[in-house]
Amino acid sequence: MRPIKDNFSDQASLYKKYRPNYPEALYDLILSHCKNFDLTWDCATGNGQVAEVLSKHFDQVVATDISAEQLSHAIQAGNINYRQGRAEASGLENNSIDLLTIGQAIHWFDFDKFYAEAKRVLKTDGLIAAWTYGTFRVREEIDLVIDHFYSDVVGPYWDDERSYIDKEYRTIPFPFTEIATNQNLWIERNWSIQDIEGYLNTWSGVAHYRREHKSNPVDDVITRLAAHWAETEKVRFPLFLRLGKK
């Protein structure tokens, strides 16, 4: 079994404040393929941003995460049951789940054990949706600064699993009957330079850099970005979805 990595407990409050929410178009696409709306499992829920949306469509939501600190910041709703635990051992009943969602997290999992668990708990017609978002885009002069920071400054400090995101989840094993989807999905936000600073401080690669060097590389890149940043800029994250049936 792959060791458990918890890269996000230390910055859980920043994660809740600065990580972008997902667009309605993503949820609409996923939900359009669901047959039943009794019970859904949001795995690696973090602060519950996906669970909250699902709670408006499903009778019951089970939302799990390995991080107690992340769960302490979770968005509450009466039909969401938050549980601490690893993805490969949900504690759910066999054939009980209509939809299993994993937002920006499946690359951390022990694939073989997680997929065995997914197939155990999904109903016969159950749906699994796993997605990620890539490096944000603004405009050329800003993108060049961000790409240098991502690859050259923080690059050596990313975990190996980051390569799955760089390859847009195409190389993640996915042993399900895959459903073809429109991949032209984006998260779009109008952000200030302070928003970008907060977001960059949630990166796990930045956290690893800080621990090793006892300094924050975000400070320098924000100074460089500030020379190009208007009061707000449109920030776009490309979304990559894998969708399948049991």
Helix and strand topology:
Blueprint: H1 12-18, H2 24-31, E1 39-43, H3 49-54, E2 60-65, H4 68-72, E3 80-84, E4 97-103, H5 111-121, E5 122-133, H6 140-153, H7 162-166, E6 177-178, E7 185-191, H8 193-200, H9 204-213, H10 218-226, E8 233-245
Parallel strand pairs: 1-2, 1-4, 2-3, 4-5
Antiparallel strand pairs: 5-8, 6-8, 7-8
In short:
With 246 residues, the protein is of the alpha/beta class.
The overall pLDDT, averaged over residues, is 93
Q: What is the helix tally?
A: 10
CATH class of the domain at 12-135 and 160-188 and 237-245: Alpha Beta
Q: Helicity range of the residues?
A: 25-40%
Give the topology string: H per helix, E per strand: HHEHEHEEHEHHEEHHHE
**SS-based class:** alpha/beta
| Low-pLDDT ranges | none
Strand content: 15-25%
Largest sheet: 8 strands, mixed
Q: Radius of gyration over alpha carbons?
A: 18 Å
Euclidean distance between termini CA atoms: 23 Å
Task: Supply the CATH architecture of the domain at 12-135 and 160-188 and 237-245.
Answer: 3-Layer(aba) Sandwich
Which outline best applies?
A: globular
The third-level CATH topology of the domain at 12-135 and 160-188 and 237-245 is Rossmann fold
The total count of strands amounts to 8
Q: For the record, what is the CATH homologous superfamily label of the domain at 12-135 and 160-188 and 237-245?
A: Vaccinia Virus protein VP39
Q: Which key terms come to mind for this protein?
A:
single chain, 246 residues, alpha/beta, Rossmann fold, 8 strands, 23% strand, globular
Description:
By secondary structure, the protein is an alpha/beta fold. It has a domain at 12-135 and 160-188 and 237-245: 3-Layer(aba) Sandwich (Rossmann fold). 34% of the residues lie in helices and 23% in strands. Strands 1, 2, 3, 4, 5, 6, 7 and 8 form an eight-stranded mixed β-sheet that branches. β4, α5 and β5 (122-133) form a beta-alpha-beta unit. α1 packs antiparallel against α8 and α8 (193-200) runs antiparallel to α10. The radius of gyration is 18 Å and the shape is globular. The two termini are 23 Å apart.
